[in-house]
Amino acid sequence: MASTKDVYLVIGGSGFVGRHIVEQLLRRGDNVSVFDIVQRYQDVPFYSGDISDQEQVSTALRRSGTTCIIHTASPPAGLSDPALYWKVNVDGTKAVIAAAVQNNVRKLVFTSSAGVVFNGNALTNVDERLAPPERPMDAYNESKQKAEEAVIAANGKGGLLTVALRPAGIFGPGDRQVMAGLYKVYEDGKTHYQIGDNTNLFDWTYVENVAHAHLLAADKLDNPPPAPPLSTLEEIPLEAPPLTEAEVAILNHPLPPLDLTVGRRCIPTSEARPLGPYVTPPPNADKLVAAFEDKFSHPEGRPVVRTRFDPLSEPNLFRTKIDKPDTTPLGVAGQVFYITNGEPCYFWDLPRLVWNQLDAVFPGHRQKRGYTVLPAPLGFALAFGAECWGWLIGKEPALTKFKVTYSCVDRWHNIEKTRRVLGYEPQVGLADGVQRMVDWWRTEYTSGTHKITH
């Protein structure tokens, strides 16, 4: 850990994710400023500027005394302006990197996206070994992919340490995209429509968990790596060297289950169980009950057993070290990490949870009716027609091939590396997160300040 506290500049700190990061930094007493194009809050020093202008970013870094940049700035997904995505995400990120090196900033944490590896096909329990596709799904993910590549390539240049985080399906208080879209479907009376059979698992991530991961990455970015990079050795070994004690400590402890939403369930055994009905308690009754209850207070998982297919197995770790000899896969610097709730659910389940919560806000608005299920092929056909018509009249259609793909394929990610290396554990479960988002939205709605636009 660093011997002195960092001074933070959150680029994009007026936005959705950026604001939650600022609030968490303030809660723990850190020195934080914001760089953005619009000022929405008055509680931290603010620097207005164009992210693609290196000198404007550099000026903010000098004046704020920044030692750690958290870069969250990005136009929202779904815009039909590729040039804007390139200007902010690619040119802007390169300007941030150059300004950081120019001003001897030590750390850069970049908000990437899990979408950088999505090419329209199913992603099932994918880990960080999966390379981004040559043809990203859209301009947003293409620009994020290029920005992430620039951030990782900059690690170690001019003393700068970098890391990229890939959150998936962010939602929560302050969200102007997911919640706005779901409310419009609710208001239009279209919640009974479903595309696909809803057997595809999807990763949603509560925004405060995303912010928490950014702080963990920032705190651990300059920690000594658990093993020296292969490039620092006199010669690169032909066989995997033994793991260091620090690597073993990261890899071999059992992780607790992710149970914020589903809760914990213990299976009784002969050594640990509730007593149930009895006439005479067994002689070791207290020991049996204590052992069973202790599983709830110490919910460690099963012992770690790995195969050669495991991303954190010794052969795969060595392969990663060979491919990237200047970094270590169990360090933070120069790495990418998926950030999710660790609770993949069927795609349509979360929207329906939101709509059920909205029923409490607008009692009687929805009539009970069965679901109208459109098979995925029919959804694609309708989207194709809508896109053709939209092209003719110059208007973005409500249904697109991307939206159909998005709602019909598996998209969930393995976060074991994130949990072990960053020490990340989700703080808020999906169900609680939805409740918090809808409560926030209700406050905005009743005050008349909520807007559909971002």
UniProtKB/TrEMBL annotation:
GO:BP terms for this protein? steroid biosynthetic process
Keyword tags: Oxidoreductase
Q: Which residues form the 3-beta hydroxysteroid dehydrogenase/isomerase domain?
A: 9-228
- Spell out where the chain crosses the membrane: none
Q: Does the keyword Oxidoreductase apply?
A: yes
Which InterPro entries does the annotation name?
A: 3Beta_OHSteriod_DH/Estase, Lipid_A_modif_metabolic_enz, NAD(P)-bd_dom_sf
What top-level branch of life does the organism fall under? Answer: Eukaryota
Q: Name one GO molecular function term.
A: oxidoreductase activity, acting on the CH-OH group of donors, NAD or NADP as acceptor
Gene3D superfamilies (UniProt xref): NAD(P)-binding Rossmann-like Domain (3.40.50.720)
Q: Which family does it belong to?
A: Belongs to the 3-beta-HSD family.
- What is the designated name of this protein? C-3 sterol dehydrogenase
Q: What is the organism field in this record?
A: Lentinula raphanica
| Classification lineage | Eukaryota, Fungi, Dikarya, Basidiomycota, Agaricomycotina
